[in-house]
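Subject: Protein record for review, amino acid sequence with backbone structure tokens
Why sent: The fold of this protein is of interest and is recorded here as tokens.
Enclosed: The protein record, placed directly beneath this head.
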Amino acid sequence: MYHHPKPKEEYNPKKRLGHVHVYTGDGKGKTTAALGLMLRAAGHGYRSVMVRFLRGYRDVGEIKMLERFSDLMEIMPFAHEERVNFESPHPIDYYLAQQAMDYARKVMREARPDILVLDEINPAVHFGLIDYRELLDFLDNRHQQTEIVLTGRFAHPEILNYADLVTVMHGTKHYFDREGFSPRYGIEH
């Protein structure tokens, strides 16, 4: 059956961007889902930026892979190599989290990517490195046609309420729990 083509202005797919996604929960795959969305978007010529909170390591597959697609995807890590001690965060952890938020604002203002991922922002908020009201203000003042993805455990209830899409990854079984397991390059790194 023949369908009439839609008028060009109605069919502009970028006009339909602008939703807020939250990928949270205790299961594996939150950042991986965000990276998959970035890869899918790149296939359609969309530009994506990932701002990484709490993760500073650079010898990981996603950073190496994205170097090959730097014209469409960028990852900016704002953390040091060691894990953050959430029971007693170092002043540098607060500083780097704020630097990540400032960079996200700058990217939104100047680059206006089609997709902006704030990776591990949820635990940064949960543990007080970023105030949830600051994140809500950022979301309220985002570019209307930028899709935002917020990842990490412990998503704040106000953020969950604000979001257009919430996916909770639930861990049922994980090999991390096995004695002697160490992360593998290409799978966990």
In short: The beta strands are 20-24, 48-53, 73-78, 115-119, 147-151, 165-168.
